[in-house]
Structures are given as C-alpha cells and as structure tokens.
Amino acid sequence: MSIGSKDRHGPDQARIAATEGLGMRTTELPLVVVLGEQEPPLLDRIKDRARLRRVGEPHLADALRAADALLVWDFLTDALPAAWPEEGGPRWVHTASAGVDKLLFPALLRSDAVITNSRGVFEEPIAEYVAGLVLAMAKDLPGTLDRQRSRTWQHRATERVAGTRAVVVGGGPIGRAVARVLGALGLRVTLVSRRARPHDAEFGRVHGFGELPGLLPEADWLVSAAPLTDETADLFDATLFARMKRGARFVNVGRGPLVVEDDLVAALHEGRLAGAALDVLRQEPLPADSPLWSVPGLLISPHMSADTHGWLEDLAELFLANFACWAAGRPLRNVVDKTLGYVPVGEAPGGTPHTEEGSS
C-alpha cells in the first residue's frame, strides 16, 4: 500500500499511485514546501533529491496545492487551516515541534496526509528547565535578584527540594524526562498520564487523569507537561488549584490553553499558591500590556524551555532522517495518531509502556 493509499511511505510509491488517479507527479522530484520566514539549516543536503520551496504565510495556500510534503518549520503558525487545499495537498506533514495541536484541524485530519513530529529533541532540555524553575522558586532566586538590583543585603533561609512531592501531568517522553530529573534531585515524583498503568517499569505506578484531583492535596509541586487535546484543554482551573495544598507551586511547560490563566492568577493573589511559572501562554507573544507580567510570584518565560544552543540543527537532522525514510519508502518515525493527537509510544524491549507525547 502506498502513501497515496494512507500508508507511511515515500515519493516512489506515491508516483506509482499517480497512475491510479491520485494526482502525484511521476517525473519530477518531490516538492517539499517549508513553512517559515527563516531558512532551516542543513536542508541543502537533500537539494538533489527534492525540490525545496520555502514560503511565508501569505503564499502558503498556493504552495500547498502542489506540495508532496510539508515541513512546518514555523510551528507556532495559525495559517494552516485556512491555507489547506480542499483537494489534494501534501501526503506527509512534519512539524518542528513535539506538540501537534495546531495541525489537528478538520481538513488535515480528514486527509490522507501522515503527520510526524519532532519527538526526541526536546525532552532533556525541558526537564532541565523545569528543574531550574523548581530550584529557582525554592531558593528564591527572583527575590535575590530583586534585592541585588536595590543593593539590599538581606539574609534569608530557603527551602529544600529533596523530600518534597511533585505531581507531573503528562506521561509522554517529556513528562517522563521531567519526572526522572526531579527524582534525581530527591523529589518524590508521581506521574499522571492519559490512562493509568499499575506496573510501569520505570516509575512503578502511573496514575490516570481521573486520579489527579486526589493527588493534589499532598503535592508541593504541580508540573504540566501534557499535550493539548480536547481532554486536557482548560484542565488546570480553579477547581484543581483549590485542591492544592496552600503554599504549593505550579509549572506549565505543556501548552498555554491547558491553564485557565485567570484562575491561576486568582490562586496566586489569594495565597493558595506560593508561586508559578509559565513557559507557555494562551497568547504568544505575550503583549507588553498584559497584566500577567506583574502578577506577584509568577515567572514568565517566552516559550523557551526546549530551546538550547544547536536545537535548530537537531530539528533539521531529525527531519532529514525522516525524509530519508520517506524517500526510500520506509516507515516514518514519530507518526502522530490523528485520533489521539499525539505519538503513541509502543512497548519497547526495556518495558517502556504506551504513553502519550508531550508538547513543545
């Protein structure tokens, strides 16, 4: 079965499928459209095996009609739903992100296009970033910087993180990496996933989403690393924050719409939460006049938890490896299940269970 028949294979099979009326070109190199204002690194490696066309949002619709594959390099774009052709279009869509929520619009879901993501690039950097946020809040580094700016010498005691309890929501590779790093710091970590797993090889027990409210009264830290789906949208709201112990803290490195931001702000103002950190927000970039900038106890960063030196090259390398599979007709890596909205991770030799993908 070729990619034109809903398989995961590449342009050779697709050209054969053209004789069956699927409209793919039989003589030209495959057209790979790259969506993004910036030129991705390393793509010249495939210039003899593909026709590359980089476009911005204004020219996307025209480019998609003739495309065989689409690289969504600008993974924060909202332009795809309006630009997607009524018929035809790319048979393979790869995004330079772990989260795929911006690709799950009806026309693409109905199409034969295979979606792949960039799982494998972001897990460790995000886990390190979360650990940094936890340590920064526990050790009051923001307060130290404020006092340094005002030249105030004020000795203070800070908190230990070892022995505190963290609940990490998101059982995919990112959430698992976060849980692993926090555990290395001595935190007692509970992992929450889409479905419960009583015999997880690494964490012993993984709880289901339905168990989350019962875990919060004992949590010192609540970390969101879940993908954005219908099930997780607005998950972190006033009801959940009210169940948290007074003085707990919240971190979101998943997606902005996972959190009802007004409810989070209220929990901070009321003192229910001692602090919070948002690396992702509902509106990005966050406007300069947003009241979120000045909420006491709230740390805001510009969606950067996954971005380390060399990350663009890492993303390009992953795409090129997948392109080689596609061109050779081999199965692609990181294929998204369109019905779930993430990459299911199958049972591995080491006993890693099925998990959902995280977001970045």
Automatic annotation (TrEMBL):
- Any idea where the D-isomer specific 2-hydroxyacid dehydrogenase NAD-binding domain is? 132-305
What are the entry keywords?
NAD, Oxidoreductase
On the tree of life, the source organism's domain of life is Bacteria
The record's section on PROSITE patterns has:
D_2_HYDROXYACID_DH_3
Q: Which GO terms describe its molecular function?
A: NAD binding; oxidoreductase activity, acting on the CH-OH group of donors, NAD or NADP as acceptor
Q: Which residues form a coiled coil?
A: none
Which Pfam families has this protein been placed in?
2-Hacid_dh_C (PF02826)
Give the protein's recorded name.
2-hydroxyacid dehydrogenase
Q: Which CDD domains match?
A: 2-Hacid_dh_1
Under InterPro entries, the record lists: D-isomer_DH_CS, D-isomer_DH_NAD-bd, NAD(P)-bd_dom_sf
